Amino acid sequence: MPGFDFRLRVFYEVSTRLSFTKAASRLNITQPAVSKHIQEMEHQLNVRLFSRNGNNIKLTPAGEIVHSYAAKIITAYSNLESELSQLSDISEGIIHIGASTTVAQTVLPKILALLKKNHPKINFTFVQGNTDFITQQVINETIDVAIVEGIKHNPQISYTPFLKDEIVLVTSSKTKLAKRGEIKASELYDIPLVMREAGAGTLEVILEALRAAGIAPAQLDIEIELESTIAIKQYLLYSEAASFLSVQSITNELKYQQLAIVDIEGLQILRDFQCIQLHGNTSKLISFFKRFCLSNHN
Fold it and tell me: Residue limits of the HTH lysR-type domain (predicted)?
């Protein structure tokens, strides 16, 4: 029964976290709704699932048994959906897709073109913006699925790893910095830098890596902040500045020797591009799109 399926999911979230509040946040429903589902389940099974001591809860012996079976049922159900989805012939439909700026400009254009070529009856809308904006659109349910960069994790969002990426320090191939080829991390303080705007996932990853390397971002010489990778690359071509960019975004500029990578001793910035969707917002078309991205990103 569908109602019992969801109650089982609610119970599993509460029993795993031993918190009605955390379960409500995870499932994107209210805490009273969580309590109601648990009460209905206890009534249906005719057992108490939790014992309460003030604000703390713990599983009863019956709750321990139900938790064990719930974990197995939910895993089996997820595997069932996945296998059935793979057998499905997704031939038409509409899907609302989003992507953070770097992904939108580098990885997704090819994937979207191949999707339209191979599945012409699948229609899609596409929105791009920084990671914060795209994540909010997923939460608002104006986007079904998106690919973003960044290190923030919203409890309302389900994250699936998509593609590994490296962020490198880049400058015009004509600069003195380019001719050096490698610098020490401490020398970053002496280099004028072009950075992405606040809210960009790339910026979050960069700042986190710099702090881990002992570099204070507030003391860097930020020459200008720009909103897109394309704008940054154009700026670099006519300046002495440098910037941190995804290696995915500079393949042509490296090929034609317009930009050059400057290695930083002891510093490597790696990150994951991730598929995101709202918890509970699943469909055969969303699952198909995620598999299509994984199969066609190279």
Answer: 8-60
Instruction: Give the pLDDT of residue 271.
Output: 82
Cα maximum dimension of the chain: 76
Q: Give the C-alpha separation, 119 to 57, whole Å.
A: 50
If phi > 0 it is left, if psi is from -120 to 50 it is alpha, else beta; for residue 46 that is: left
Question: Comparing C-alpha atoms, which of 80, 98, 50 is closest to residue 284?
Answer: 80
- Distance between CA atoms of 64 and 58, rounded to whole angstroms? 9
Strand residue runs (E) in the chain: 50-53, 56-59, 93-100, 122-129, 145-148, 157-172, 182-184, 193-196, 222-226, 242-246, 259-265, 269-278
| Confidence band of 173 (pLDDT split at 50, 70, 90) | very high
Q: How far apart are CA 147 and CA 108, in angstroms?
A: 9
Tens-place pLDDT, residues 13-55: 899 889 888 888 777 778 888 888 899 899 989 999 999 887 7
Phi-psi region of 257 (alpha: psi -120 to 50; beta: other; left: phi over 0): left
User: CB–CB of 168/247 below 8 Å?
Assistant: yes
What whole-number distance in Å separates Cα of residue 40 and Cα of residue 79?
27
The domains found in the chain, sorted by start residue, are: 2-87 (1.10.10.10), 93-163+272-296 (3.40.190.10), 165-271 (3.40.190.290)
Pairing state of beta strands 50-53 and 56-59?
antiparallel
